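Researcher: Here's a chain I'd like modeled. Treat it as a single chain, no partners, no ligands.
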Amino acid sequence: MTYKAYLDNIKTQTGKTAEDFVVLARKKGFVKDGKVVAKHGEIVSWLKSEFCLGHGHTNAVVLYLKYPYLAKKKIENGD
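Model: Modeled as a single isolated chain. C-alpha cells:
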C-alpha cells in the first residue's frame, strides 16, 4: 500500500486530511512552531483513541506531522 493510499483511507475513515491532523495536533499542543514536541507514543495513543485509527495509519499521520516535506514527496512520487 502506498503512503497516499494510507492517507486516502484515513480521510475515508475520519473525514480528515493530513493537514487537518496538523491543525488538530497544534491545538492539542503536540506541534509548536512547526515542530513535533510530543512523544511518538503520545500521538499514536491520541490518534487511536480519538479517531480509531490502526497502528499503521497512526504512523502515517505521525510521519506527516514530523516530516511534512518527506511525506509530501512520498505522495508526489507514489511511494
